[in-house]
Backbone:
């Protein structure tokens, strides 16, 4: 597949072209803006050999490619966030050309403007909570061989039920943490707990959440997170950020 | 702005998996295979996806 | 879902260890099936009459004991039979670890 396409990074309010001077897009092409009514599309040109529909599907399954492109995408979105309010798009929004991208965004104009208003002066923070394992309990059940097949099944059922109760308690714990932090944020959203093989962390992840917080509200939010961490073992609560508001800009879902 | 954190751990934004949570529209799944090799030659790959699907249907929390 | 081929877990062998390593793979898969059967039996145990439940329980208990014996014969610990099922966690839980039960 040859030819080029237009990669859309984000939507912003109109930006002076000069403010993007020197910002490089994926693969080194210049980043530029394309007008779409009252908003601007921030784009760059990419090759369809890499970003066409089929190559993109394949590349998305290549972790090395994905890492490189995700970081490049993020660098550009972050550069924009330093300049103005950004509605970031997710990775891989590619259009045939600039006009096509602009037309799409123009159709979503009112959603984009509404989102920009929500995001003004706000930033995203991530909170991850891990379950730190309790000390090993050495045989809470009887140590002797079960006296019958039925006894064996009953014991196994008891063990599985205890595990289920524990799992439920952890889930409720995660819910209450989320609700507590939500009260000191503007918006909140949960992500799927991370795969340990990807994160490299063995402890089960109880909560993977994103919070939209006003810049003025940052100290209060951080204080709440710190308070949360006080009631838990060391390392159980991890804060990340500030992020561009990826988790709260659902323009591409529209 | 000075803040001190007593107990929460602050991670910088280098974590790839945190980034992927945010920039990918769908979740990320690792599929695992087990490969047997002998004398450096890959002989057999057992694909566990079918097994994972079975277990998943059994009891997703 | 974006799905990745993770670096496959390799069971590297030379001619000497091939038997043990093949055994490990076989036992791991048997362990997976054994656990699935056990969970299913537990789900259904109240619907069965005592005699059948007893027979089933005894069979499963013996299977578990046979597995332990086979494992020990090849010097494998429970953790060696562990299957990483990705987002579903591991097949074998170390003691004290929390995991969603089926």
Residues:
């Amino acid at each position: 597949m040859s030819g080029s396409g237009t990669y859309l990074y984000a939507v912003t309010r109109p930006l002076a072209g000069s403010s993007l001077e020197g910002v490089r897009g994926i693969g080194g092409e210049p980043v530029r803006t394309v007008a779409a009514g009252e908003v601007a599309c921030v784009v760059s040109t990419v090759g369809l050999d890499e970003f066409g529909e089929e190559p993109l599907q394949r590349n998305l399954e290549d972790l090395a490619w994905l890492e490189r492109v995700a970081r490049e995408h993020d660098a550009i979105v972050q550069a924009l966030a330093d300049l103005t309010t950004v509605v970031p798009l997710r990775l891989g929004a590619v259009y045939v050309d600039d006009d096509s991208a602009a037309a799409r965004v123009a159709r979503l104009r009112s959603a984009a403007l509404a989102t920009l208003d929500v995001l003004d002066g706000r930033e995203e923070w991530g909170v991850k909570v891990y379950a730190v394992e309790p000390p090993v309990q050495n045989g809470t059940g009887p140590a002797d061989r079960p006296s019958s097949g039925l006894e064996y099944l009953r014991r196994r059922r008891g063990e599985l039920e205890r595990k289920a109760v524990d799992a439920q308690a952890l889930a409720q714990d995660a819910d209450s943490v989320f609700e507590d932090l939500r009260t000191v944020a503007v918006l909140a959203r949960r992500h799927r707990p991370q795969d340990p093989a990807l994160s490299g962390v063995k402890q089960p992840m109880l909560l993977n959440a994103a919070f939209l917080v006003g810049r003025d509200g940052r100290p209060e939010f951080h204080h709440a997170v710190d308070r949360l961490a006080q009631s838990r073992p060391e390392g159980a609560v991890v804060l990340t950020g500030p992020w561009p508001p990826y988790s709260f800009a659902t323009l591409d879902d529209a | 702005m000075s803040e001190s954190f007593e107990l929460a751990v602050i991670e910088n934004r280098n974590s790839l998996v945190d980034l992927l949570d945010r920039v990918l529209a769908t979740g990320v799944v690792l599929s695992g295979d087990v490969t047997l090799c002998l004398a450096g030659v890959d002989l057999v790959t057992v694909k566990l996806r079918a097994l994972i699907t079975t277990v998943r249907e059994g009891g997703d929390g | 879902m974006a799905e990745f081929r993770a670096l496959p877990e390799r069971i590297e062998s030379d001619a000497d260890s091939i038997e043990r390593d093949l055994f490990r793979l076989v036992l791991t898969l048997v362990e997976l099936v054994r656990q699935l059967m056990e969970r299913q039996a537990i789900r259904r145990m109240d619907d069965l009459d005592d005699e059948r439940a007893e027979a089933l329980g005894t069979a499963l208990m013996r299977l578990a004991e046979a597995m332990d014996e086979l494992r020990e014969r090849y010097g494998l610990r429970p953790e060696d039979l562990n299957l990483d099922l990705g987002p579903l966690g591991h097949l074998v839980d170390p003691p004290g670890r929390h995991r969603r039960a089926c």
Observations:
- Confidence is low (pLDDT under 50) at residues 94-102 of chain C.
- Chain C touches chain A at residues 2-6, 38-39, 41-42, 45, 50, 53-61, 84, 86-87, 89, 93-102 (CB under 8 Å).
